[in-house]
Every structure is written in structure tokens, then in C-alpha cells.
User: What shape does this take?
Amino acid sequence: MSSIVKPWKIGVIVDSFRVGVREGLTKARNVGADGVQIYAVSGEMDPANLSPSARKEWKDYIASQGLDITALVGDLGGHGFQDRAANAAKIEKSKRILDLAMDLGTNVVTTHIGIVPDDRNGEIYAAMHEACAELSRYATAMNAYFAIETGPETAARLKGFLDGLGSNGVSVNFDPANMVMVTGDDPVQGVYTLRDYIVHTHAKDGVRLREIDPRFVYGSLGFEPMDHGKLAEQAESGDAFRELPLGEGGIDWDRYLAALRDIGYDGYLTIEREAGDDPEADIGAAVRFLRGK
Assistant: This one.
């Protein structure tokens, strides 16, 4: 039996370079990435702004750069799907982003759905469950996935929520750094807990400096809305947690990646860098770090 280990496929979130999409694609290629993840909520990659011919042009152009699309980002912010009154429009927009993903050659859209509450009998849980069940059915019919990013709640609570949806069209985008920084959850155990749902991962690192209520990070209905600017600021210089270059934070990468291999995950490790003064240098170093694994 061969003992050769297949190398990891490495992606980069284009927006982490903090330049436009086209220039970001060039930078991703130059740092040696195999694929890219792209925000598709507003601006030039908003589904409403892309005709069928424009979608084909983007797909062909990305392929011409020697890159795959690992996933699209479809995070609509606010309270995720906690607010029933806002959900119809968000569900519709999410479906259109998934349609775009399929047109561009990927079947994964990553998103935040809001913090899954402890109370399974409450109104917020019910609103989130109904929205995600509808999205799960839609994705499953297309052999696709909406992938919830880990971090706002523990892996065990997220698994309980997912188990109740009836299909795996809503699955998991596993971000080990969010778990370490916010909930203090163990990413290695989290991999095994969520093993049936992991369809995409983010490669990010960080440390937890003190306990923090996840609502201060991700927002919650009746508490405060999610604010990505505030989240990035906290990751940069906050007193509760800090995002750091790969290999410099609290993740045991050897054990974490061994766990992913153990459950049979062979998808992308997609680098996300939301902090730091020189993201291109940090992303290049992250690619080299992961190549060594």
C-alpha cells in the first residue's frame, strides 16, 4: 500500500489582499495558491450585477490564471437568520449567490447564520431553523452546500442544530481560529464532532486573551448587529483575542490537519487574513507554511 500523502489544496480569500478582485486573483496566483474564494454579496461580484455572459467570462478568466474557485462568500451580515422578518429577502439573496457559485464552477457558499442559541424552543432558534432548512433543501437539490462558518457557538451546539435540518445542504466551513479565539473550543475535537458536515475550511490562526461573550463579536438579535469592521478591529488589536499569522497562534496545526485527514477531508485549506499591515506577505508565508504540512 502506498504511503504517499496527497498534498493539501491551498486557497486564498481574494478579498484578504484588500485590492479588487482581478488584482487579487493575480496576487493569489503569485503566492502559489491553487484556488480562490470570492465575496459575492455586493459590488462587481453581486449576482444581480452579473449577466450569464459575464459569469462565463469570469469563470474562463479565473481558469486562465490556473486557479479553481474554492467557494463564494455569501455572508449577509446583520443577525444572520435570527430575524424572521428579514429572512425572506436573505434567503432569496442566498439562493442567487448559490446559483452564481454553480455558474462559476463551485458548489460551496460560506456564510454566517447568527449565533445558534441554547434555547431550542425559542423564537430565534425556530427562525434560524426554518431559514436554514429551506436553504438546505435548495442546496441539496443542486448537489451544493451553504457552509456555516464555525466560531459563534461550540461545535457540539452547531452539530445539534445541523442534525435537525433533515439534509446536509447546510453544512460547515470549518474555521479553527474562530473557535480558538471566541468560544475557546478545541478545533481538533471540533473536527471529529462536525466530521459529517465539513465541506470547506479556512486556514487562519489566533489566540484568545480572555473570555468574551460571542455576542460582542458576532452580534445577536436584540443585542447588537454583526459588524465586520468591528470584528476585524478586534482581530487586529482587541483585548479579547488576536488574529495572528499561521503557526503563531493557538492552533496545533499538526494535530488539526491530522484530524482532517483522519475524517477523510480532502478539500481546500483557504487562507483568510483579516488583520496585519502586510496581508500579501502574511498570505505568502501561510501558503509556504501549509505546503510544509
Remarks:
- The longest strand covers residues 68-73.
